[in-house]
Amino acid sequence: MKKANTILNTIGIIGLYIFVTTMPFSPALSEVGFEMGLVAIIVKALINKHIYLHPKVYNFTLAFFLILVGITIPFSMDPILSIKKFGIVRWLVFPYILLNLELNLKTSKRLLFLLLLVSGLFSVFVILQHLLGRTIFPYKFDVYQTVDFASKDISDRIALRFGQYYAILFVFVVVLVYFNKQLMSILLGFISTLLSIATTYFAYARSGAAGIWSSMVTFGLLKAKPIFYSVVILTAIGLIFVYMCPHTEISELFYSTIHPTKKTGIRYGSNIARIHMIYNTEYILKQHPLVGTGFNCYGKWTTIHQPQDKGWERTFSDPLEFLATTGIIGFLGFIIFYIGIFYVLFKAKDAISNSVLAAFIVFASGGIFEPMFFNTVLLRAIMFLVGIALLHQQLSNQNLN
To answer: Over the chain, what HEC string results?
Structure first.
């Protein structure tokens, strides 16, 4: 049995290395790595008839989320579709994979370092491709050109998902360097600069920018006052810049956010679509307040009831999506699960947990403006980081005992 456990641990850890070395440029390969780890711990659990669990708060809130959202599926307008799409929740078990593969601190730090290194190098590639305006090296996903669905035009910004991904990692790195200045601070500082460039300008990701700002303000107030004061100063400088230079692209993005219905705004079409989704959600809740349309069935509902909105598969916001598709029941589970993650990260005092907490705030607050939870690249990234933080907490407790 011991030999079998060793073999399974090795297979799972190889899968984790595949996962971190293919993030974010190959979702397919990173998923293969994840599945290797998942299969390894399932087989281990069957052999040993035992599985290691994280703190009770995380276990209970995750179970609560799965049960409440699962309850709504039989009432879905398309239960088969809801069941198929419900597979996204497998990423929520990522923390259990890391724990049950019996990783030590050294291996977990190597995985984290490799993830940051690969992401930093990939950000260089993305930025160069953007600046040159052409594909340097062909691969499956189009980085340079994306479609603005509101206007059906080709946009020259970096794909939105990269802006959101790098927003999460940027805040993680900044806080990690702040709390642990001896942990590869020069390299991480260099990477954070690259992430900052990719996030704050080339992607034009309002959700990423809002997430960064919300995280730095919230985390700064709770844990690190110097970060809070720095953000306040930078915010004041930014507002002065917007006021003094109102016709720059960044300024126009800002104005289109605070004046969403202004027809001359550069995000007018996108803003109107979002407002329309709020009205649709309100209508859905009047008809099905407890269970909504069914998990991931917003697109199907619009096809039938709002054919002019055909093509929008989900709403623009994670909370709004859960309200529309799982009603009050599923939304309650979603909120409780997020509170559970926040709690287990907030109560810890180590650098990793603090950094992941800051990253999670980006994920949660950015998800108010864009579907972060339903973007598998973002969900798998944040759950990997949460898993690393929980693993470090468990290992630290064992050392203290």
So the answer is: CHHHHHHHHHHHHHHHHHHHHCCCCCHHHHHHHHHHHHHHHHHHHHHHCCCCCCCHHHHHHHHHHHHHHHHHHHHCCCHHHHHHHHHHHHHHHHHHHHHHCCCCHHHHHHHHHHHHHHHHHHHHHHHHHHHHCCCCCCCCCCCCCEEECCCCEEECCCCHHHHHHHHHHHHHHHHHHHHCCCCCHHHHHHHHHHHHHHHHHHCCCHHHHHHHHHHHHHHHHHCCHHHHHHHHHHHHHHHHHHHHCCCCHHHHHHHHHHCCCCCCCCCHHHHHHHHHHHHHHHHHHHHCCCCCCCCCCHHHHHHHHCHHHCCCCCCCCHHHHHHHHHHHHHHHHHHHHHHHHHHHHHCCCCHHHHHHHHHHHHHHHHCCCCCCCCCHHHHHHHHHHHHHHHHHHHHHHHHHC
Each residue of 302-327: pLDDT tens digit?
Answer: 888 888 776 678 888 999 999 999 99
Instruction: Tell me the C-alpha distance between 112 and 171, whole Å.
Output: 15
Asked if 255 and 249 touch (Cβ cutoff 8 Å), the reply is no
The answer to whether the CB of 84 falls within 8 A of the CB of 73 is no
Cα-based angle 254, 338, 44 (whole degrees, multiple of 5)? 130
Q: In this structure, are residues 27 and 376 in contact, taking their beta carbons and an 8 Å threshold? A: yes
Confidence of residue 186 (pLDDT cuts 50, 70, 90): low
CB-based contact 298:315 (threshold 8 Å): yes
Residue for token pair 């690259």: 194
The Cβ of residue 273 has, within 10 Å, a number of other Cβ atoms equal to 16
User: Phi, psi (5° rounding) for residue 153?
Assistant: -100, 155
On whether the CB atoms of residues 299 and 313 are closer than 8 A, the answer is yes
CB 208 within 8 A of CB 163: yes
- Give the sign of the dihedral formed by CA 41, CA 43, CA 48, CA 53: positive
Q: Is the pLDDT of residue 158 over 80?
A: no
Could you report the per-residue pLDDT of 81-120, keeping only the tens digit for each?
999 889 899 999 999 999 999 898 899 989 998 998 888 8
